[in-house]
Amino acid sequence: MTRQLFFFALIFFLFLTFDAAFSGVQNPFSDKSLYQTAQSSLLKAARFYHSINIRGGYVYNYTVDMKEKWGEGRTDNQTIEVQPPGTPAVGMSFLTAFRATGEKEFLDFARDAAFALIHGQNELGGWDHKIHFDRPKSRVVSFDDDQTQSAIRFLMSLDQEIDDDSLTLAIDKALQMMLKSQLEDGGWPHKYPAQGNYHDYATYNDGGINDCIKVMINAHHYYGKAEYMNSLRKAAHYLVISQLPPPQPGWAQQYNKYLQPAWARTFEPPAVCPLVTIRNINTLIDLYLYIGRSEYLQPIPDALQWLKDVQLPSGKWARFVELYTNKPLYYDRGRIRVNNTSELSTERRTGYGYEQDLSQSLQQAEQRFERIKALGRDQFLQEQNRALSKQEISAKIKALEPIVQKITASQDELGRWITKNERYKKNVIGALWNGEYVVRDRISSAVFNKNVGILCEFIKLCNSFNGGGK
């Protein structure tokens, strides 16, 4: 090496040393191949999953040979699921992959999922939990388990990427349905139109009203119409007035038109519900952050204290807490009250969460509330939306690396993630579950959605660190 070359090499080495020493940023690309591996894994997974679509849609689980499919029970080759982790959730995974990589193929896959949903949209503007391509469309809109709500959110999100008249018409129809179905006092029913039973009640169970509010926040954010903001204000008012009075300042799963906690199914009594209460605390915070009205925060301190007061000696919380007494409630089918979970039937004891560990959810909700109180709305939003520093991005990449390595290593050559020897309940048509299980290898939409989300986050962080990417 000549003296001149040696000199330039020394200068370059010193520059790198200086940069590393004073920037404080650890280079997260010690294994650059993992970035390419993640991208390859994402593309293989998406192509495989798209290859098993049913007219663009998806169910929950598949046997490896694709001969059997499950959603809410066994399905067939003419049926897809609207409820997550089915079609809207898989479609959103494809859309997330497009946004992380800019690869148009992912956008095409998302479009196919959207048009499966549009095909199944009923005349009212919403969806039931399944779409049957070989049967008449359902005449019921279900707000249970994020069914109609997830479909609308996905279509609106896709609408930000493509311009298509049929997509626009479907979204407009769906949002008009959301406005028409909203109850006079501001909640949303379990199902629409009126069924003449508990489905007509304003329903927080399984996040019903909470997910409707998410739809309307997104709708106003994307399209800015005053009618969507009016809907949000009505919903926020309902959250405030449906809180039960002290000494039980939580929320029930469902309410009748007189704002009284009411029976739903025969094992779902009128009661105060800790899980519903935590969800409503978070929704009130979301509404405060979006609309800015401080009265939306006023119900929260009492609710937090009540949640701490009703924690069970086991450290868990009862799903149902008896009105006036704060005692845990356990009901089997047929409105049969029992003393504890061990007295429940096998089908109910294993098929419903009568007791739950809510400690982490409660802690997160309380910390979020306290942070907002300490900072104020504007500063909290600034902190929430600020760009990450290179140090923070590098740390997140490093934390994700072993997870990404595990995900990519567990994928087979076809792009599948196969859950081995999964144990699940044996389904007997016309009978309640009797305690029998089936063990099989399965391909799961929930696993696909989770792994795609992690790969996309990793890819986005890597692109952000390098100052590139979509």
Tell me what you see in this structure.
The chain is an alpha+beta fold and 470 residues long. It has a domain at 34-181 and 387-470. 50% of the residues lie in helices and 10% in strands. The chain is built from 15 helices and 15 strands. The protein has helices at 3-23, 33-51, 87-101, 104-120, 147-159, 165-181, 208-223, 226-241, 274-291, 300-309, 346-351, 359-375, 377-385, 390-409, 445-465; strands at 61-63, 69-71, 73-75, 79-81, 130-132, 141-142, 191-192, 202-203, 254-255, 317-318, 330-332, 336-338, 355-356, 418-425, 437-444. Strands 3-2-1-15-14 form a 5-stranded antiparallel beta sheet. It has a two-stranded antiparallel sheet with strand order 4-5. Helix 3 (87-101) packs antiparallel against helix 4 (104-120) and helix 3 runs parallel beside helix 15. The protein is globular, with a radius of gyration of 25 Å. The two termini are 42 Å apart.
